[in-house]
Amino acid sequence: MKKATLILDDGTRFEGESFGYEGNVAGEVVFNTAMTGYPESLTDPSYAGQLMVLTYPLVGNYGVPSCEKGDDGIERFMESDRIYASGIIVSDYSEQYSHWNAKESLSDWLKREKVPGITGIDTRYLTQVLREHGVMMGRILVEGVNEQPEQKDYNAINYVDLVSTPEIKVYNEGAPKRVVLVDCGAKNNIIRCLTKRGVEVVRVPWNHDFNGMDFDGLFISNGPGNPEACEVAVENIRKFISNPEEKRPLMGICMGNQLLSKAAGAKIYKLKYGHRSHNQPVRMEGSNRCFITSQNHGFAVDASTLEEGWKPYFTNMNDGSNEGIRHESRPWFSAQFHPEASGGPVDTEFLFDDFINQL
Amino acid sequence: MLKDENIKKVLVLGSGALKIGEAGEFDYSGSQALKALREEGIETVLINPNIATVQTSEGVADHIYFLPVTPEFVEKVIARERPQGIMLAFGGQTALNCGVELFHRGVLEKYDVKVLGTPVQAIINTEDREIFVEKLDEIDVKTISSEACDNKEQALKAAEELGYPVILRAAYALGGLGSGFCDNPEELSALAEKAFSFSPQVLVEKSLKGWKEVEYEVVRDSFDNCITVCNMENFDPLGIHTGESIVVAPSQTLTNSEYHKLRELSIRIARHIGIVGECNVQFALSPDSEDYRVIEVNARLSRSSALASKATGYPLAFVAAKLGLGYGLFDLNNSVTKTTSAFFEPALDYCVCKIPRWDLGKFRGVSRELESSMKSVGEVMAIGRTFEEAIQKGLRMIGQGMHGFVENKELEIDDIDGALHAPTDKRIFVIEKAFDKGYTVEQIHALTKIDPWFLEKLRRIHDIDDELHKVPALEALPHYLFKKAKNAGFSDFQIARAIGMEKEMDIEKAMLRVRDRRKALGIIPCVKQIDTLAGEFPAATNYLYLTYGGHHSDIFYEHDHRSVIVLGSGAYRIGSSVEFDWCGVQALETIRKEGYRSVMINYNPETVSTDYDVCDRLYFDELTFERVLDIIDVETPHGVIVSTGGQIPNNLALKLDEQGVHILGTSAQSIDNAEDREKFSAMLNRIGVDQPEWSALTSMDDINAFVDKVGFPVLVRPSYVLSGAAMNVCYDREQLEQFLRLAANVSKRHPVVVSQFLEHAKEVEMDAVARNGEIIAYAISEHVEFAGVHSGDATIQFPPQKLYVETARRIKKISKKIAKQLNISGPFNIQFLARDNDIKVIECNLRASRSFPFVSKVLKINFIELATRIMLGLPVSKPDKSVFDLDYVGVKASQFSFNRLQKADPKLSVDMVSTGEVGCIGEDARSALLNAMLSVGQRVPEKNILLSTGNGKQKGDLLGAAKLLVKNGYKLFATEGTSRHLDENGIANTRVYWPDEEGHPQALDMLNNHEIDLVINIPRNNSDKQLTNGYRIRRTAIDRNIPLITNARLASAFIKAFCAMSPDELEIKSWQEY
Fold first, then answer.
1. Could you tell me the sign of the dihedral formed by the alpha carbons of B460, B360, B437, B476, in that order?
2. What pLDDT does B722 receive?
3. Closest Cα to residue B791, out of B727, B835, B836?
4. Which of B347, B386, B550 is nearest residue A279 as measured by Cβ atoms?
5. Strand ranges (DSSP E) for B505-595?
6. Which regions in chain B score pLDDT beneath 50?
7. Which residues, listed in sequence order, are joined to residue B306 by a DSSP beta bridge?
């Protein structure tokens, strides 16, 4: 294996070995403490532009499943059609894998998709650096590769625009109820969670104005990057919620929570190092009900700035940050976490039921 | 939400003596529960006869009863203490079964005692297989199709329908007792018969051999909030009891989808059953699909939950106790970060490997195959940032002379295929051997069904070893390979051996060379924290391990020389278990109290000493010379305590001392002078103390000459013995020669010694603490059995009841001399033989002994606290003489686990075979003994007693007791010689026939028909016929769950005790009241 180096913007260097594509890359370095689910995370469009550090050291154990699509037109085992993370950083890549459903090794997949991977890194220490300093940009440089990676300003790029569907797509066509899914970088499992509940899903580009469309419910997906870049979507949502006659249900996830909150007047701020894990505890406001959730976000909603009529729905039990909002009288709500999971715990999938039951 | 304010006093049930399947983990969970209760200001009552535990120490519970955990005794304690609540989940299956019985008998209702935590009905729902399957059917969860059968015929029919192979389980049995796989009706018949003697119901199930086994630890509060704290995957596929399997955490070969599918099922189950607190769910997972079956649910803290707590840093028992009081998970904080919530699931950034420790070599006749019931006596947990590192650490930790996966003593295996297919306690080393012989991962997988991922990792260790073998010299070892080997868990020892340094120098020296070179190259381990959140939040945790999988340490070291390191006792095994955990914890507490930084190194997940709460810094890591030095390098301690952790630290003393480490207390040189038989004996001669004659083994001729002089029997053993390992009494030349061939392999560095063996001698123990050679406190105790029964198996009374005053006086005198000669500062123990005031020293250990907690608690003087203060150089005052004058008696009795060890001969000898012990206190020796015997599972017989009383002398010993039995209305049955002897002495009895004799009644028939309530079978050491016949009777008694006693002196004492008083008459009094 070739030597590879991770250099953070503050100059900290980590020496390791390349196990993915042999190319140099830059991105926002973020850590994820989940212990399983690297195929799901890598194909999650929300990781676009980021170098993903896995704190669980042993990675690659069960290989990678096939990228084939099922009858529903979406990848059977992946969260999208390709790897969206810009790179992956691990401590102990497992060269041999074993699983009945594996088609190739993680290394081969990364090479095929031209995504660099670096192993042999003290990812615990790297995580501590990111925790103390906050997320920062970094570069993976592979020995013998000369071209300099393109330097980007993560916060200034509209990643949603880069990952959203360019055209309208329909899933489970002809089902009795229709849900419009505003694709800010939607994970496949959101579509699966909707279609398996018997609705038609119309996936539209992030900036598509759905207000004129015929649908029974509105769904705002997760997505990468800075919500401030998605003003068009916020405007569309604002149009929807400011219609006093509007009674159709709305649900948002992650970026969807932030865009809905913005539409409801709230301010968004960037977390020091985000929540990326499968073990985030949230409490449903005003209740003793608590849930373990899967999360992947770097920005959060300042719930105190919500307009009248809106209130917090869930709150993070570790740091008190907002984890979702709901409207006081209309069937509109959103979650900062991922009720669709994949990867992560499935405890909050009932939110899909709540949404569907109100259609 | 606040707890129930009506609960002011709570009774916690312990698990009793350590036994296979129920060991130290319940001391840990019980201690945690008691801590949680105390924190709430609740008065606590504990019933546990295991006197060596931490939970039965001062300050842990308010009222401690050293009584059997049985419904009869628990009811009496309830009537006396009138607690408002009871906790059943912290004392293993023993406490759970007892609680269910109390519920059925209406005792809980009668005294208005509320079960805190999972309700009894929910427990019953998990324990009764039929209800359990029904319950899980209700929520569409798949179980292994099984049929509950009430007799053998039903079982055979069920198996026929399911199709062989099937697995048979006994309901309501701990740790898979009486369970096993059956390939045909014959095997099923045999097993079913045995199982029905333990349990009224057996379950016949379809076997899923080869599936993966995965467990989840689930926590649920009364608000229906649920988390899974940890999942674990067995290295060995289904078919081997999880207690017998290597286990990794978190799972390694499960995808996200599988992990969360099983997680969701676990939560669904915990909710439906109504767990409040903790439970564990075991799954079988198909290796070719996402198909699964639930194997079982344990509605209590378990061995796995103790492991999960240590693997994650999440204190399951503590949290479960709080939830039992009515708290919600959201009310509690993560006890590691202190700032985040207890409602979360730990994220690990390391890999954990649990490896069982077996002691099968100690049991004659036992089958070494691993099966669906448990035989291991302990376990270790290793932490690493690669699987290779964790498993190699773990294989060293089990302490059976292994150096990791590779570079061990050559294993002799004739049939590798067979050994891979039918695993034994050596299975992992057979895999190494197979790699050596060129087997591929595929071939080994086909034979073992172990997931190829694990095998590939082992293969990688093997390949690195091959690479090392090509290195001609240490100087030629390239940096990258050095680092790679260390990353993969190689010890300096393994590296030294792999590159062939042993050819040129002593291995100890080679190891140090490797160490120096390594440090010069900057290859040193770093210290990482276990913080439950993988670094996401800052944690002030003191729970640490060392790894080469990183370059940055989490800890900032003060280098203020205020650290005092206590070396722990490692894996529980026969001869070293919870008693040394108690000693270690007492030492830590004293160190902390005196303002030093208490530091523990230990790796046994069952212990309290590896609870990060009991010390200022916990290194959950190896107790090897290399790793201890690594820790000393970073910790720069004031000193190291080697005398409270049993033999492992003791053996390190000299080597550490040579490296300039400050050993606190008695000097390393003195320790060596006591450990090295030659030096010790020379010293005894010098100071005029008698000892049995002995000689070092150098040649067979010398030995023969020696034996000609002293005569048989002789005792043979290597120096540096642990619990009599490889120690034996030989009665003739043939036995001697055969045994020496085996023992010669044990240790090259220390000679094997042969000594004169005295029969019919009393054995007396001196446990004491000295300062600068002067004894400060001491306890003399006396064995009930004569010498020849290992002190760890013997029944011990303290204070001694039948010792001549002169004998005691001489023992004190000799002990004083020895303490002075060795200039002891700290704990020590001397064992004596006494016959007619003739005293001989047989052993001396300059460390705490097994009986330290027992004598400390009976005397109410904490010997370890005293010793630790002395080792820290703090002033101590001699306890007043009057405290040694007790008006009550303590009896320590041994717990055997022969019922777990199929085919093992359940008899006692100089080699220790007990797995645990109890200690009970009484107004007199009889009541203390009766109490202790009942606590280790003996029962007062109803009517019929079967006697085979050995040779003439032993027969004589029992005559009085036999008369007493007849007088008390018991009916005696006796085998030929015994029957004749009883007849001659006018004692009524019925002759029964040995298995190889014609005639009726047959002893075995009577046992099989449960017509006998107690078997007294005294083996004699001569003819094979006797041995075989006796073995069959003893074994049948064990297999039929009929109490068995094999020592004449103990049998006699027990009989006298229960004839004098019934268990009902035993006084119910807490420890504090004596």
1. positive
2. 40
3. B727
4. B347
5. 526-529, 543-547, 563-567
6. 1, 720-725, 746-747, 1022-1023
7. none
DSSP B329-342: GGGSB-TTTSSSBS
User: Reduced to 3 DSSP states, what percent helix, strand and coil does chain A have, rounded to the nearest 5?
Assistant: 20, 35, 45
B965 by DSSP, 3-state: which?
helix
Distance CA B46, CA B14 (A): 7
End-to-end CA, chain A: 54
Q: Which residue has the tokens 């909050």?
A: A348
Q: Which of B930, B981, B926, B992 is nearest to B954 (CA)?
A: B981
Which candidate in B226, B248, B255 is best for mutational testing of the A interface (most A CBs within 10 A)?
B255
Give the closest of B223, B535, B549 to A55, CB-based: B535
| Spatial distance between the Cα atoms of A100 and B740, rounded to a whole number of angstroms | 52
E strand or H helix that includes residue B285:
strand B277-285
Q: How far apart are CA B1064 and CA B1073, in angstroms?
A: 19
Q: Do A280 and B534 touch (CB under 8 A)?
A: no
Contact B593, B564 (CB under 8 A): no
Per this entry, what is the length of chain B? Answer: 1074
Annotated active-site residue A99? The verdict is: no
- Put simply, whether B253 touches A (Cβ < 8 Å) is yes
**Is A340 tagged catalytic?**
yes
Q: Is the preceding peptide bond at B165 cis, omega within 30 degrees of 0?
A: yes
Q: How far is CA B923 from CA B512, B927, B1054, B1067, in A?
A: 56, 7, 16, 8
Return d(Cα B123, Cα B403) in angstroms, integer: 43
Supply the pLDDT for residue B743: 56
Could you tell me if B141 and B269 are in contact, meaning their C-beta atoms sit under 8 angstroms apart?
A: yes
A29 vs A297: CA distance, rounded Å: 13
Sign for the pseudo-dihedral over CA of B493, B495, B498, B501: negative
Cα dihedral across residues B41, B43, B47, B51: positive or negative: positive
**Run of H or E residues at B1004:** helix B1003-1008
Q: Report which DSSP code applies to A75.
A: B
Reported as type and span, the H/E element at residue B351 is strand B351-357
The shortest CB-CB distance from B347 to any of A33, A58, A99 is to A33
- Report CA B199 to chain centroid distance, whole Å: 25
Report whether B383 contacts B620 (CB < 8 A).
Answer: yes
CB interface of B with A, residues 526-565, below 8 Å: 526, 528, 533-538, 549-552, 554
A57: nearest CB among B254, B385, B533: B385
Hey, is the C-beta of A13 within 8 angstroms of any chain B C-beta? no
> Which residue do the tokens 């300039």 mark?
B660
Give the DSSP per-residue string, B373-416.
S----EEEEEEESSHHHHHHHHHHHT-SS--SSSSPPPP--S-H
What is chain B's percent helix, strand, coil content, to nearest 5? 40, 20, 40
| B884 close to B855: Cβ distance less than 8 angstroms | no
CB B9 within 8 A of CB B34: no
The secondary structure of B711-768 as a DSSP string is -S-EEEEESS-STTTT-EEE-SHHHHHHHHHHHTTT-SSS-EEEEE--SS-EEEEEEE
What pLDDT score was predicted for residue B747? 45
Which candidate in B349, B486, B526, B554 is best for mutational testing of the A interface (most A CBs within 10 A)? B349
Q: Which of A40, A288, A321 to mutate to test the interface with B (most CBs of B within 10 A)?
A: A288
Query: Average pLDDT in the A200-219 region?
Result: 97
> B327 to chain A: nearest residue by CA?
A288
* pLDDT attached to residue B365: 81
- Residue B205's pLDDT is 85
Catalytic residue among A208, A254, A297, A327: A254
pLDDT attached to residue B718: 59
